[in-house]
Every structure is written in structure tokens, then in C-alpha cells.
Write a structure and sequence with these properties.
Layout (H helix, E strand, L loop, with lengths): L8 E4 L5 H8 L5 E7 L12 E2 L2 E2 H12 L5 E5 L4 H10 L5 E3 L9 H8 L7 E3 L3 H4 L7 H19 L1
Parallel strand pairs: 1-2, 2-5, 5-6, 6-7
Antiparallel strand pairs: 3-4
Helix pairs in contact: 3-4
Amino acid sequence: FFDALGADALTVNPLMGADAGAPFTRRLDRGVFLLCLTSNAGAADFEKLAVGGTPLYELVAAKARQWNTAGNIGLVVGATQAEAFSRLRALAPELPFLVPGVGAQGGDLKEAVGQGRDAQGRGLLINVSRGVLYAAGGPDFAPAARAAAERLRADINRCR
């Protein structure tokens, strides 16, 4: 992915452990976002399960910090999981969060930005796909997609 496709970062499932993630995390010039607490409704099936009394997503956050020796690991934290943002930020204060789920999935942008940003007021990469991708069809797509992205940026900045 990094070499053949030129990807800057990947989303990786951490459940197979450090050895499975190592081929990605050892690339010091690239980023890796570990699935932690996703925005889909089925996240509760596994990510919220208690393991020894601790939700699995909290254990993932702790492992991500442990594995982040090169400073290139972040967490996927869905905007629909507003109740967990402040806890995850406390557990992983220095890790960037990739935040899907704003828009079509109903995540609260204001809550995600308010609870998820780091001590410097940053640390979030807000991902909105459908709102930009389906902004328009036909020849008006490019200006409509640009306008949608600019509205999102303005909304994010208002929340900061």
C-alpha cells in the first residue's frame, strides 16, 4: 500500500497483535490508524466488550500508546461514540484520532471536536466521505464537492 499505491497512512485492525501490525508501523515515514472505537452500530459487538472489566477499545488505546515508539500511530474513533471521546483522549493524549461518522452516520461534529482534540487544540482528522462524494452528480460535481468540503472545514473551525 505504501510503496505500490503511495498511501500516506492506513487503517489497520490491531486485534492480530503487534507482529501483524509491525510491517505497517515500522514505516517511520507513514502513518497507521488502529481501529479503536468505530462509528458503525456494530461496534458494540466487540469493541465495547469488557475484558477483565475494561472495554476492549480502552485496551486498544493503551496498546497503541505502547506500540507508538516512532510517533506514527493514531486511533480510529467514530464521531458517533461521543460518550467515549473524553475518556479516549485521557488514555491517549498524544495520539491523533481519525474521526469517521460525521454526516451520513449522524455523528456530532461539535462533540467530537470538543471532546476529542488534544491539549494543543488539534489531534483530529475528521473524515467525511459521503457528504463530499455525493455533493452533486454530473458536471457540477467538482464545485459542489469543493463547496461541501469548505463548509465542513468552516464547521470544524467553528467547533474549535
